[in-house]
Specification:
disordered N terminus, 8-stranded antiparallel sheet, 22 strands
């Protein structure tokens, strides 16, 4: 009976624990001017490998670049004809390397939107059915629904908010749909208690800093993932006032260009050391 009581008490404990205070970015590693990287290996409430990158948007030499439409845009997918091609799926690391090959000085890249098709065998060549994707002011996908999104406006301001289905899209340089707003004006509004690898974006209250947050998961005795409540708490801890949960799970990937070794380093690590081909990525570019 005592054992059963203890088990019931443990089951009643919350699946998350609030992180207190504010992270000291003076302790973080400087990747490049205006770009810092923090790593935390949390032991409570479970093992979590957490990476955070902070981008100083006051540095006008830094800009953002999103996945663009594929050259075969609009054609039926050869391996899923009921859906039309919007983007070509590729690893985040490949997205960064391809841009660099094309003389785009991309320094950091992270996965972004959910997409379709998501049916067995889960290895379709292209991505489609993205609720909202605008790249370089060009609409790649727009399902005309109310959608939580990460935005870069024409006057170079970053926003995280719900885009109304009837809202004019002309003001967006970049728009990338996410799953849900998890942090709003400094208040945690997330509600998903399931544990998964996670990718989240955040912005500071004054819009100066952009944050990429990834949490590794599904790796027994190494990193067990996080819920969105915890992710919102960590975004706030790192300095964000608003945050959004993007595509996670096996898609979660955070990559940085290693100038010394002339290669792309993957900061996050997936179960079985895999990297998924994703439909969209977002990169930080040095002009």
């Amino acid at each position: 009976m005592k054992k059963i009581f203890i088990l019931l008490m443990l089951a009643a404990l919350p699946l998350w624990a609030a992180v207190e205070g504010n992270y000291d970015w003076n302790k973080a590693a400087t990747l490049y001017d205006g770009i810092k990287h923090a790593f935390i290996y949390a032991k409570e409430p479970r093992l979590m490998k957490i990476n955070a990158v902070r981008i100083d948007l006051a540095d006008k030499s830094l800009t953002l670049k999103a996945t663009s439409a594929d050259k075969d845009y609009g054609k039926p997918m050869p391996d899923y004809p009921k859906m039309n091609i919007e983007t070509k799926r590729m690893k985040v690391r490949e997205f960064l390397l391809e841009n660099r090959k094309n003389n785009v000085n991309m320094l950091v890249a992270v996965n972004s939107t959910p997409w379709g098709p998501w049916t067995k065998p889960f290895n379709h060549r292209y991505g489609g059915n993205i609720k909202l994707l605008i790249s370089d002011s060009k609409i790649v996908s727009d399902k005309k629904v109310n959608v939580p999104a990460f935005l870069l406006t024409r006057d170079n301001k970053v926003e995280i908010r719900v885009v109304n289905k009837n809202e004019d899209r002309k003001n967006f340089k970049i728009a990338m749909a996410g799953f849900e707003i998890i942090l709003r004006d400094g208040k945690v509004v997330a509600g998903d208690k399931n544990l998964h690898p996670r990718t989240c974006y955040g912005i500071s209250a004054d819009g100066r800093y952009l944050y990429f947050l990834t949490v590794d998961g599904r790796q027994k005795l190494v990193s067990l993932g996080a819920n969105t409540i915890e992710c919102a708490g960590y975004l706030k801890y790192f300095g964000a006032s608003n945050g959004i949960n993007m595509d996670g799970g096996g898609s979660t990937t955070l990559t940085v260009w290693n100038a010394q070794k002339q290669k792309a380093d993957v900061l996050s690590h997936q179960a079985f050391c895999g990297e998924r081909n994703v439909a969209t990525s977002l990169g930080i570019v040095k002009k």
